[in-house]
Every structure is written in structure tokens, then in C-alpha cells.
Write the C-alpha cells for this entry.
Amino acid sequence: MKLEFIVLPVAEVERAKNFYTALGWREDADVGEGDGRVVQLTPPRSDCSIMLGPSLTPAAPGSMQGLCLVVNDIEAARAELAGRGVDVSEVFHDAGGGLPRANAQGRVPGLAPDRQSYFSFASFNDPDGNGWILQEVTTRFPGRLW
């Protein structure tokens, strides 16, 4: 099995499409009209896409949180997003050395100690409030493929 796409709840499909394409995400599809419209967008170098549409999910716009984008250089990825006009957080790590919590409690400014792979982060929201986490991965855990 392979994760192909995630349905993202948004209030306005066109606004969301414009936001993600401004990030450099590839438009794979924009088909249908009205309630039947479906837009599929894919982040650079990703095999998984997001799908937007007014009738795809009953979830409230902005209710998706903790969506993760893996990057190999957190500082460069953060700078790129900021350069594209995104309100992206400063780089942080978790005080306990783990993954970030949804409520931002325990976040410590700066890179993870020794810039340990998997433990440096930045975050941003789309216009609807769907929450994204950038996670720096420079070396995969044993047995994991890129």
C-alpha cells in the first residue's frame, strides 16, 4: 500500500489552490465545477498529494493539524517559504527531544542539539488554518528508504 493523497478541508478551493501553487507545488488536476470541483496538488519531490474540493470531506476547514513535510535542510526550507510570503515559525526543537506537540508547549527555539536528524522543526498554516510541520531528516532510521 502507498499513501497517494490527503483530502484537505478548505473554505475556498481557489484561494487554497493559489496558496499551494505559490509554494511551488505542482498542479496535477483541476477538474469539475461547483460542488464537483476537485484540485490535486503535489509538493516538490513528494509522492503524496493533497486534494481540495468543496464536497470531498465533512471536516471543518482548517481542522487538519500536524501535516508533515520532510526536508533535508530546515533552515533553507524555512527561508524558501518565508521568501514566498508564508508566515512560517522560527526553527525549533522539542524540549523533551521528541516530536512537536500540537499545542506548541515545550518548543525550544533553534535547531535540535547536534542537529540530530528528525528533531528540528518549523511550522506554518495555510489560509484556512490547516497546520503544517517541516521536519528536518538528514539521515533515515535504519530500514527506512527515502
In short: The chain is about 15% helix and 25% strand. The chain has a mean pLDDT of 93. The CA atoms of residues 33 and 115 lie 47 Å apart. The first strand starts at residue 5 and ends at 7.
